[in-house]
Protein 1
Amino acid sequence: MTIRKRGTLPFCAATVVVTVAAASLSIEHPRGAQAVAVDRGSRDYTLPDQMQWRDTDNGKTANLYGDPSKPGLYAYILKRGPNVWSKPHFHDNDRFVTVLEGTFWVGTGKYDPQRTVPLTAGSFVRDVAGGIHFDGTKDEGATLYFVGIGPSPAHPAEPSTSATSASAAEVIDPAIRQIQRIEDMAKESFVLYGDSTKPGLYLQYQRRAPNNWSRPHYHPIDRVVMVIGGTMWIGTGPSGDKTKTVAVPKGGFIRDVAQGVHYDGSGDDPMWIQIAGVGPTATINVDPPTGSADAVR
């Protein structure tokens, strides 16, 4: 059985930005020295070819942050092979699923693979807590990114209890599963769920045009980032030096460590990322060292 979580749909998340003077944090290695270019105590990352996979009943899983069986934020990737389906089940907490590759077929209520909706790469679904649902893959399989607040067990649901409030014309009951297809999404940044200035889980999609860089900054609480498209160039410390960054491509994962000063940009191509964390939080800008020639301009 596949593990899922719940969530809610778009709020408008405000970001608090404060500027402070920074103590020096140096990065000493040029772009290209992937293993040492960033301070892992400020910002950790996992490239797609560094994922540690383990086999489960649902497919291959790579745990990236936290533990779905324990309290707190978690994030993991599931590679589900062709023609693998879960039976109807539900979760105690909301769960959020993003399709990274392939097609994910989702349904609600009584098990019926013919009454499902296909979600292609970039699409998003919120599994509402307590809502009975099922899902699976067809011939191409799917790679899925899960985020939620644990513990997150999956509880089997008997078909007789799989009632739905959806009308005859609706395949998916929106009270159980809320979907956002990639085809219908906004082309700019927007909030998927929650509000980063308030308590609780939040998720954001952020799109950046080419050569768009942040200032050096930090966050009071850990947050996690999945690269959905393009390449994210990440650095640490207050200098903002673009030559001292690591390239994290599509499918790469980043953990912004609480209080760790960092910066990032999109390079020569557009970039699309999903950000998740637990609020309330803020983005606190940091001034580069006095006289630094490497500051982001």
Protein 2
Amino acid sequence: MSNAGGDVSGDDASPPLELRGVTKRFDDTVALDNVSLTVRPGELFGLVGPDGAGKTTLFRIVTTLLLPDAGSATVLGMDVARDLWAIRARVGYMPGHFSLYPDLSVEENLGFFAAVFGTSIDEGRAVIAPIYSQIEPFRNRRADALSGGMKQKLALCCALVHRPDILFLDEPTTGVDAVSRREFWDLLGSLKASGLPIIVSTPYMDEAMRCDRVGLMQRGRILAVDAPAAIAARYPHPLFAVRAEERHRLIGVLRGYAHAVSVFPFGAELHYADARNEVTPARIASGVHEYLAANGFRDASVVPIAAGIEDAFMALMPAPEEPTPVPAGAAS
């Protein structure tokens, strides 16, 4: 894909995105801590983590809206500090919040963003057609009158109308319904098939599974980078789904078991990790069941399961930081 206007400098042999030791601070808060990663050509790459992990700060740096305090970042072979105007002409960016003009119609918003990049809706139609065809019947409707899903599709069209060479999407499906989320990711699959590298951030683990590779983020750090299934396969402990009545009490009792590594709620069940890698899953399940029955959970079920990416993420997360002690006699 090539953009309609602007500087076309940059090294086409370079990775679409490369970060080396990127650090960003806001006063005493470290938003990004020595982040390094490389996105491959044509890849759908996911940045996965909770609010506050540093995903938006990273996106703002690679789209030239912020400068890193340390390290380097290149987009399409161009440096984010030195080549910001050339980068801006060649990237598509959809921020996490709805950033279009609410008083303008669908067609007016799209026309405006096309004009900013020196192109037109007609020139960009081949790229946006699969998406725009779904909202074109509402082209005269004001943007603020659209549903959440339609707003996201309009924002995606505006990010693509100038035919960018790389696409950044910051939590594009947050706040939209499940059907619209699935439709949006189907559209991303179609864009990926065209060879467009896409970097998308998400807090949703089911969306992470649709990426070629993901980077798990927490507290401004990259915990792991790999294919989602490969990250899940690294899970280091036997894992079990446990169900019983009195779920809240069940959590405490399970965490008190001598061989427990972790216990986390997952939907209607608990995921229990056991420290005994040398023991068969059937034997572990039998022992856990006996322990729970002895503690009053005679209805408990304990079933071995394969770890998912969310289990792996929980295992990789650093321990909570201890609060700084307050010296005796200090003012409150």
